[in-house]
C-alpha cells in the first residue's frame, strides 16, 4: 500500500510541475511495428496472442482506459492482411472466453481474414482456451493444444448480480415504474418470476445453439462426441483430441512449424510479431504490444474484483472461481 501511495504522489507531482519525464502509463500513441523473432526467408508467419477475458469495451487501467482486446486483435489482423508477404497466422489463445458478442466478433474477424488473405491459420492453445476462447479458435485450419491446456466449456452462461437478500437485511427497497411487465427482467433488486426464468433460459438456449452449430460446422464431431461437448464440460489436451476438439498436441514452436508446413513455406520463413515498442530478447511467449514504465494498482481485489466488475450479460465463459 505504501508503494501505491508513492506512485500516486509521483504522478501528482509530475502533473503539477509540468514535468514530462515521468511516464507511469503504457504509450498507445505509437503505431504497430513489425519485429522478427526468428527466420530470414522473405515469406512471413505472423504470431498474434489473444490473452485474457474477451470483452468489446476498453481495458480499464488505474487512471485511464486503454485499447481493449478486440480492438488490439483486429488492428493486428488488419496489419497482417495488408502485407502480401504474410502467408500464415499463428493465433496463441490464452483465454477463458468472455462476452458472447466479443467472442463472435473475433470469430468473424478471423474468418474474414482467412477469406481475404487466403493464408493459413493455426491456433496454439496455452493455459486455457475455453468457452469463448475455444469459439474464436474454430476458424483455424489446425488447432494445436499445449500438453497442459484446458479447453472445451462449449456453453453459454447468463451472469447477473443479485442484491435482493442484502437489501432485505439492511431495510432498503427500490421502487420501479415500468412500461411493460418485463421491462425490469433481470433486475438485481428482486427475485425473478417463473416466466422470466423461462425467457432467460430461452435466450441462453438460442445463443448456445449458435455455439454448438459452429462447433459442428468446423469440427465434424461424431454424435457421441458432440453429446459430450454439449454438456459444457472442460477437457484436457489429450481428452480434447480424442473427442475431436483439437487436432494436435504441442508447444508454440510446434504450432509455428505447423503453420509453415500448412502454408508450404521454408523452415526459415520469418516469424514476426507486431509491437509498439521493442523488447530486448523478445520471444513468442511475450504477449505485450506496448512497454510501460510502471502501472500503479492502488487496490488489487483479485478474483473478487473481477467479479464485481463483471457486467450483467450473456457469456461464452468458463469461470470456475466464481
Q: How many β-strands, per DSSP?
A: 14
Class per helix and strand makeup: alpha/beta
Distance N terminus to C terminus?
A: 26 Å
What is the CATH C level class, in words? Alpha Beta
Tell me which CATH architecture applies here: Alpha-Beta Complex
CATH topology: 2-enoyl-CoA Hydratase, Chain A, domain 1
Count helical runs: 10
Classify the helix fraction into a percent range: 25-40%
Query: Can you identify the CATH superfamily?
Result: 2-enoyl-CoA Hydratase, Chain A, domain 1
Topology:
Blueprint: H1 2-17, E1 33-38, E2 41-51, E3 59-60, E4 65-66, H2 69-81, E5 86-95, E6 97-99, H3 100-117, E7 120-130, H4 132-135, E8 142-145, E9 150-152, E10 157-159, H5 164-170, H6 194-219, H7 223-229, E11 234-236, H8 237-243, E12 248-249, H9 252-263, E13 269-275, H10 302-309, E14 313-317
Parallel strand pairs: 2-5, 2-13, 5-7, 7-8, 7-9, 8-12
Antiparallel strand pairs: 1-13, 3-4, 6-14, 9-11, 10-14
Amino acid at each position: 500500500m505504501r508503494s501505491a501511495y508513492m506512485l500516486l504522489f509521483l504522478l501528482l507531482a509530475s502533473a503539477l510541475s509540468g514535468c514530462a519525464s515521468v511516464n507511469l502509463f503504457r504509450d498507445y500513441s505509437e503505431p504497430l511495428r513489425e519485429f522478427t523473432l526468428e527466420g530470414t526467408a522473405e515469406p512471413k508467419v505472423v504470431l498474434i496472442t489473444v490473452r485474457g477475458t474477451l470483452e468489446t469495451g476498453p481495458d480499464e487501467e488505474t487512471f485511464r482506459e486503454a485499447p481493449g482486446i478486440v480492438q488490439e486483435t483486429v488492428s493486428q489482423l488488419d496489419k497482417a492482411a495488408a502485407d502480401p508477404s504474410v502467408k500464415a497466422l499463428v493465433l496463441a489463445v490464452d483465454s477463458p472466453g468472455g462476452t458472447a458478442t466479443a467472442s463472435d466478433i473475433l470469430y468473424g474477424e478471423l474468418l474474414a481474414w482467412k477469406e481475404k488473405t487466403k493464408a493459413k491459420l493455426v491456433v496454439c492453445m496455452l493455459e486455457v482456451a475455453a468457452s469463448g476462447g475455444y469459439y474464436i479458435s474454430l476458424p483455424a485450419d489446425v488447432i494445436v493444444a499445449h500438453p497442459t491446456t484446458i479447453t472445451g466449456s462449449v456453453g453459454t452462461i447468463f451472469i447477473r448480480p443479485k442484491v435482493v437478500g442484502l437489501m432485505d437485511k439492511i431495510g432498503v427497497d427500490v421502487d420501479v415504474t415500468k412500461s411493460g411487465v418485463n421491462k425490469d427482467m433481470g433486475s438485481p433488486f428482486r427475485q425473478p418470476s417463473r416466466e422470466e426464468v423461462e425467457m432467460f433460459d430461452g435466450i441462453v438456449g438460442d445463443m448456445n445453439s449458435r455455439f454448438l452449430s459452429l462447433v459442428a460446422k468446423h469440427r465434424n464431431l461424431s454424435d457421441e462426441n458432440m453429446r459430450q461437448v454439449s454438456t459444457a464440460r472442460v477437457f484436457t489436451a489429450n481428452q480434447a483430441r480424442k473427442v475431436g476438439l483439437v487436432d494436435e498436441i504441442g508447444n508454440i514452436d510446434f504450432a509455428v512449424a505447423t503453420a509453415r508446413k500448412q502454408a508450404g513455406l521454408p523452415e526459415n520463413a520469418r516469424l514476426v510479431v507486431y509491437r509498439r515498442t521493442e523488447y530486448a530478447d523478445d520471444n513468442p511467449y511475450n504477449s505485450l504490444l506496448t512497454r510501460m514504465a510502471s502501472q500503479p494498482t492502488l487496490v488489487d481485489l483479485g478474483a473478487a474484483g473481477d467479479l464485481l466488475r463483471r457486467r450483467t450479460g450473456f457469456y461464452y465463459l468458463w469461470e470456475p472461481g466464481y
